[in-house]
Amino acid sequence: MNTKTMTRHSLRARRMDRIMTGVFYSVGGFFLLLLLVLAGYIMIKGFSDLQPELLSFNKNGIGNQFFNTIYLVFLSLLISVPIGIAAGIYMAEYARPGKTTRFLRVSIEALSSLPSIVVGLFGYLVFILLTGAKWNLMAGAQAVSILSLPLIATTTEDALRALPRSYKEGSVSLGATHWQTIVGVLLPACFPRIITGIILAAGRGFGEAAALLYTAGQSVNINWSNWNLLSPTCPLNPFRPGETLALHIWGMRTEGSLYANSTQIANVSAAVLMLMVFGFSLLARLISRKIDKKTGGQGD
Fold this sequence. Notes:
Elements: H1 3-47, H2 63-94, H3 99-112, H4 116-129, H5 137-162, H6 165-173, H7 178-189, H8 191-207, H9 210-213, H10 245-254, H11 262-295
Helix pairs in contact: 1-11, 2-5, 2-8, 3-5, 4-5, 5-8, 6-7, 8-11, 10-11
């Protein structure tokens, strides 16, 4: 191949690279613009005619639903994060290639593709009917955990596998055991990617409605002066029913005729829910960056 032919191929490759780069930037810009337009629309519709009483913690406001949403996501992460990270560690560091490992991977993939309404029915049968319980936040948190587990496990496994082998080899050569290497070296190194999986799992919990219809219930009977954990009106009782913001939006849109300002309530709830998800993601990123700096020797 002569010099002219090589130059022609190089120019063609560069031209194609610029074209494809422009295409991908255009696609990314389109989705970013779509996201900004959607977020702006929800914010404007939600806060344009906001009344202060809609943010109160009583039957006329959405404060109780706001608390129920945060509390349910906290309970679900309390269940799914340890189990999901442990599953990811096992799949990346301990599982040997074979039929059992392939079966586990197929099971995780199948679980991640389950419709949330199916998980809700399963949660209703297992966490409500079989236990003889009534609708409660813990049952809802367990149902959401089933939806979150595959995401956290897969993210953790991929993060561990993406690390250079020198991380493990260097730690083992200094005398650390396999478990010490995982806890002290590998997990801190891939912590930002694990946080990404947790944020995505939490985002699904914030917006979940179908699975909670059968498990968490739609009650907002909370007494903020009652802190007896055994009481059904105690805010911190995980075994009381609790309506989340996503369920509240669904209720206002499907049974809105019962309320004079149902559309306004639904719009405000949607705006608050979006701000909640954004605030959680931002806080988690800040915590992840701070921990990453400390573990990387870049502390204040």
